[in-house]
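As agreed, record minuted below.
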Amino acid sequence: MNRRGIKGCPRRLQPGLSGFPDGLGCVDEDHPFGQKRFTRMRHFGSKNCLTAKGIAGAILLVLSSLAPGVALAYFTTTGAGTGGTPVGWDFALTRAVDRLTAPAILGAVVNYSTLAQSITETSSTMNGVSGISAIENPSGQESTSSTYLLGILRSAYNEMMALPSNALISGDINGMTLFPGVYFDSGALNMAASGVLTLDGRGDPKSLFVFQVTGAVGIGAGSLINLSNGAQANNVYWISTGAFGGGAGSTLVGNVIAQGAADPGAGSSLIGRLLSLAAITITSVTITTPDQP
């Protein structure tokens, strides 16, 4: 690790804010990721600080343990963010994730309200593009063919599932108020009927909420997902290895990317996108896809 010219720098990383000892102190003009300099976040003593090159070395060590190229590709393509959404212990990844807008994550899929290999729509409305148009064009014009779009969706699913999490979550999320972050559930995630989940953006409209579920997501009938303090539906992601199911009359928000089938429930509403690598069924559902940020 580079500690040039800084007397008293620690010899190794210690637990602390974002994995560093109480914050960042030193600056380095040749920071490798396009950000010219790091500034002090919290004072932790005039003699104890890390240079950006040292931080970069730690970042690369962490990235090497992730899925090949996933987080690094996100970092290098999105630049430096604001640090509002904590991701794992790594400050640099935090800055990258804050810049993950819906277009950056979803690419051409961002214009679609629904997308899947198979879609059954009954008495439903949406303001975005229906994935049925892609199914009817399996290998036609690249940007609108199901083969192309489902490939992008698969990549987005893999990349979002591979993001390092900063919190564990499980079971019933009814009655919770959650703050920006990447939440990991090693099993099924559910919300009781008529439940309420509040996502609090802490005043940051760029705040990101990612739910990584290695199982199914089940939302009870009549449930409500509420956004507060600047949280945006565009920045909420439900990533599941199984199915995504909603109960009748639910009010949902966010971008669903399910590896299994997706059905938000009859008469439900969704502000976001309903995306599946398998099949979608919607009956009397209203999907409002937000404008791109």
The longest strand covers residues 251-258. The chain has a mean pLDDT of 76. The helical segments are 52-63, 70-78, 91-97, 102-106, 132-135, 146-162. The radius of gyration is 21 Å.
